[in-house]
C-alpha cells in the first residue's frame, strides 16, 4: 500500500521529535518519493541540546504511564541491538536502588568553614523543607527502608560511614539506562540518513490552518532573522516545555532542573541511586526552593540538619550524572539557548554527592554544570482539537527518554495510518482536554 503525498513537519529536536522522525522513516508506509519530513529545532546547536540532552537517561518497566511503558522499554532494547546502542549511546541494563545516607561535611568545609561564613543565625536552615527528587512518586518513605547491606559492587558509595538503609527499586530485568544526549543525537542522525531534513536555529512562530480551520496548511518559523513558511499537511508538535506556546489548549507546564556530570577516576558499577541524604549541622546550606540566586546562602552553614534527595546515575563511560530538585524561580525563556544556569544549585548537588562518595567528591572531576526545563503535565500524544494533521507529542515529565521510542512509533502510526496499533493512547490522548 502506498501512502498519499505528505509534507510532515516536526516541531522540536528533543528526544520525542527525533524518535518520531526515526519511526516515521521506519514505517512500512513511508516512502521517500511521497513523503517529505522536516524537523525544526529552535536551538542553533544540533538536536538534543535541551532537556533531552541534560536528562538522566533511566529506563524502567516500572515507569509511567503503563499503557506505553512496556512498548517503549522493548523498543529501547531493539534499537540498541539494531544500532549497537551499547557502544553508540551507552545502553546497558542496571540496578535502581533507594539509599538512605548521612552526609559528611565536605573536606575543607569543617570548623573553618563555619568561621569563614560567619556565625549562623537562629533561622539558618530552621525552616528549610526537604528537597524532593524528580522520581519521588516511586520512592518509599526513608523510615520504611529495610536495613540491608549494599551489594559488594556498589563500591563508589561510602557504604561504611554514610549508608544507613538500602533497598532495590529495579533490577537489570526491568531497568536500563542510556546516555540521553548520545541517544538523541543518534536518533537524529539515523533519521537524517533515511531522508529527514533537520533545520536548527528555526524557532516556530505559528502553525497555520486552512480557511475553514479544519486542516493544517503550513508552519512559519524564524531563522537568521528571516521569516520562512513551510508547506505542511501534518504537523507534529514535540516542543517539550514550549508546546503550550504553540498549542495553548495543551496544558504542558515546566520547571527548571539542575544537574551536574562528574568524572570518576575509576569505572562505576551500573546503579541508579535514588537518595535520601541527611545533611548534618555545619553542611553548606542548600539553595532555597524559591530563591532566585541565593549564592550567599552557601556562606552560612546549616544550624540544624536537613534532608535532600539528589538522584545519581552511574554511566558506563566512568561519569555520574546527578540532579537536584526542580524550581520555578526563572520563567521559561524564549529558547533553550537562553536557559539560565544557577551556579549555587549545581554546587548544592556537588556538595551533597561529595558527602556520600569520595569517587564523586574528593577524587572526582566536575565536567558540567547545567540546567534545563522539564516538561510536565502529560504525556500528551494524539490529534489536537479535531484539526486534521495536527498532532501533539509532549509533556513527558521525567520519563521522556524512557517513553520516547514508544511515542515515536505511535505517532508514526497515527500520521501514516490514521490510528495507533502498537498501544492504546489511553490517558495520553489529548482529546480529554478538548
From TrEMBL:
Coiled coil: none annotated. One of its GO terms (biological process) is retrograde transport, endosome to Golgi. It comes from the Eukaryota. Residues 8-414 form the FAD dependent oxidoreductase domain. GO terms for cellular component: cytosol; late endosome. PROSITE patterns: PROKAR_LIPOPROTEIN. This is FAD dependent oxidoreductase. It comes from Pseudomassariella vexata.
Amino acid at each position: 500500500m502506498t501512502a498519499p503525498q505528505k509534507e510532515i513537519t516536526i516541531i522540536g529536536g528533543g528526544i520525542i521529535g527525533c524518535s518520531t522522525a526515526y519511526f516515521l522513516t521506519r514505517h512500512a508506509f513511508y516512502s521517500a518519493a511521497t513523503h517529505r519530513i522536516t524537523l525544526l529545532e529552535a536551538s542553533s546547536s544540533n538536536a538534543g541540546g535541551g532537556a533531552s540532552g541534560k536528562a538522566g537517561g533511566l529506563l524502567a518497566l516500572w515507569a509511567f504511564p503503563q499503557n506505553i511503558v512496556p512498548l517503549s522499554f522493548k523498543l529501547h532494547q531493539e534499537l540498541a541491538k539494531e544500532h549497537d546502542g551499547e557502544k553508540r549511546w551507552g545502553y546497558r541494563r542496571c540496578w535502581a536502588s533507594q539509599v538512605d545516607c548521612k552526609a559528611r561535611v565536605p573536606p575543607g568545609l569543617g570548623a573553618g568553614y563555619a568561621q569563614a561564613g560567619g556565625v549562623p543565625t537562629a533561622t539558618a536552615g530552621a525552616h528549610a523543607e526537604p528537597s524532593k527528587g524528580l522520581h519521588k512518586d516511586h520512592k518509599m518513605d526513608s523510615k520504611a527502608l529495610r536495613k540491608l547491606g549494599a551489594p559488594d559492587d556498589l563500591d563508589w558509595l561510602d557504604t561504611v560511614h554514610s549508608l544507613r538503609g538500602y533497598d532495590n527499586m529495579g533490577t537489570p530485568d526491568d531497568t536500563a539506562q542510556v546516555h540521553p544526549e548520545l541517544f538523541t543525537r543518534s536518533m537524529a542522525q539515523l533519521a537524517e540518513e533515511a531522508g529527514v531534513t533537520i533545520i536548527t536555529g528555526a524557532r516556530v512562530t505559528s502553525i497555520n490552518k486552512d480557511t475553514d480551520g479544519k486542516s493544517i496548511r503550513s508552519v512559519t518559523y524564524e531563522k537568521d532573522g528571516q521569516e520562512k513558511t513551510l508547506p505542511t499537511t501534518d504537523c507534529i508538535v514535540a516542543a517539550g516545555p514550549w508546546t503550550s506556546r504553540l498549542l495553548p489548549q495543551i496544558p504542558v507546564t515546566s520547571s527548571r532542573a539542575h544537574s551536574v556530570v562528574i568524572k570518576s577516576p575509576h569505572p562505576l558499577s551500573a546503579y541508579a541511586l535514588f537518595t535520601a541524604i541527611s545533611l548534618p549541622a555545619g553542611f553548606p546550606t542548600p539553595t532555597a526552593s524559591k530563591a532566585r540566586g541565593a549564592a550567599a546562602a552557601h556562606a552560612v552553614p546549616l544550624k540544624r540538619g536537613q534532608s535532600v534527595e539528589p538522584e545519581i546515575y552511574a554511566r558506563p563511560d566512568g561519569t555520574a550524572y546527578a540532579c537536584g530538585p526542580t524550581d520555578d524561580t526563572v520563567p521559561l525563556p524564549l529558547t533553550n539557548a537562553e536557559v539560565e544556569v544557577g551556579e549555587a544549585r549545581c554546587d548544592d548537588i556537588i556538595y551533597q554527592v561529595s558527602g556520600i562518595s569520595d569517587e564523586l567528591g574528593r577524587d572526582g572531576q566536575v565536567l558540567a554544570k547545567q540546567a534545563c526545563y522539564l516538561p510536565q503535565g502529560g504525556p500528551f500524544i494524539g490529534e489536537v482539537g479535531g484539526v486534521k494533521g495536527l498532532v501533539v507529542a509532549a509533556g513527558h515529565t521525567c520519563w521522556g527518554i524512557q517513553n520516547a521510542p514508544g511515542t515515536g512509533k505511535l505517532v508514526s502510526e497515527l500520521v501514516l495510518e490514521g490510528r495507533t496499533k502498537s498501544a492504546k493512547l489511553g490517558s495520553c490522548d489529548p482529546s480529554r482536554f478538548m
